[in-house]
Design brief:
Length: 332
């Protein structure tokens, strides 16, 4: 059986032909007991049709993801609290869309439009393109312009909602003085190929310094930044300032930055209503943490999700029905 036809929840190949009766028994027990559907099939190999049925049950148990306003600089744009990422396994696209996820990060890397999106109205989902020239060639206007226009020819999306300066600037001076990336954005916006300007700022420069400077410049509509349970207070403070200024905030690297601390903090896992599930606890924490104004700092997170069990534990864990069952409410 090809890998594409297998759903090995824990990576251990077990029964190749799970009977219909046993499959239904396990699935029904997991749904009735409020447990993880994927855990019910640990060590088992599911057929394509069984995987689809299990995914449908998982989505139904999770419920639709809620939506939050994405800052205020992009009108009334509302996003689900978790984004699809272009490099997710394609088998996760259908359950993600069924949960109502409406944001696709790094859609500019699609060489063609996935089948799951072809039947959707373009205005029903939000995309960004991560424009790669910013850190090493911040004045390369033509390179940034070409990346956008050539990608649109390949994937047929028509436009990107957000032009995102990938990796960000390596100094505050570059951000203020070398504006090739931003000039490319302005040209593309006039042509209707992009709408809003964002940055995926890596921490080449200490975050309190570079983020504060970007807030003051007033050009950026949305920021994607490293954030985790281990983030220091000064950095968290400047992120809260950005959100208060109306910038839509997306958290990334929440697992790689904070899984060690969260794994060793059962008390915080319990507070996030996710005991024994550090991935879910980290996502919920990032969406729950608030600034001095009492409002959540982050509108949305993007997470490296490699298989269906990670998807269920982490992404589906912010579904409205699961939140109602376990008592964790994100707030708005």
């Amino acid at each position: 059986m090809a890998d594409a036809d297998r759903w090995l929840v824990d990576g251990v190949e077990g029964q190749r032909n799970l009977s219909r009766r046993e499959f239904v028994r396990r699935l029904s027990a997991a749904v009735a007991g409020g447990g993880l559907v994927t855990a019910a099939f640990a060590g088992c190999t599911l057929t394509r049709s069984q995987r689809a049925e299990a995914a449908e049950a998982m989505v139904a148990a999770a419920g639709k993801l809620p939506k939050r306003r994405f800052g205020t600089r992009m009108g009334n744009m509302r996003v689900t609290p978790v984004a699809i990422c272009q490099d997710w396994p394609p088998e996760l696209y259908a359950p993600a869309l069924a949960l109502g996820i409406n944001y696709v990060h790094k859609a500019g890397y699609w060489s063609e439009l996935p089948e799951e999106f072809k039947k959707l109205p373009r205005e029903s989902y939000i995309t960004d393109i991560t424009v790669d020239s910013t850190p090493n060639n911040p004045d390369d206007e033509e390179g940034a312009y070409r990346q956008v226009t050539e990608s649109l020819k390949r994937n047929g999306l028509g436009y990107y909602d957000i032009f995102k300066a990938h990796f960000g600037w390596k100094s505050v001076a570059d951000m203020r003085e070398k504006r090739g990336t931003y000039r490319a954005f302005q040209r593309l916006k006039k042509e209707g190929k992009v709408k809003y300007f964002g940055v995926s700022q890596h921490n080449w420069v200490p975050y309190p310094e570079i983020i504060a400077a970007q807030i003051d410049e007033g050009l950026i509509d949305t920021m994607q930044v490293f954030y985790s349970y281990a983030t220091d207070p000064a950095t968290e403070e400047v992120f809260a300032k950005a959100h208060k200024a109306g910038i839509g905030m997306m958290a990334m690297k929440i697992w790689s930055g904070g899984n060690g601390k969260m794994r060793n903090d059962p008390q915080m896992q319990a507070q996030m209503k996710a005991p024994g599930m550090p991935g879910r606890a980290l996502i919920r924490h990032a969406l729950w943490v608030k600034g001095p104004d009492g409002k959540p700092i982050f509108d949305i997170v993007v997470t490296n999700t490699r298989n269906m069990d990670q998807f269920e534990e982490n992404v589906a864990g912010v579904g409205e029905r699961i939140s109602q069952v376990d008592g964790f409410m994100l707030g708005t």
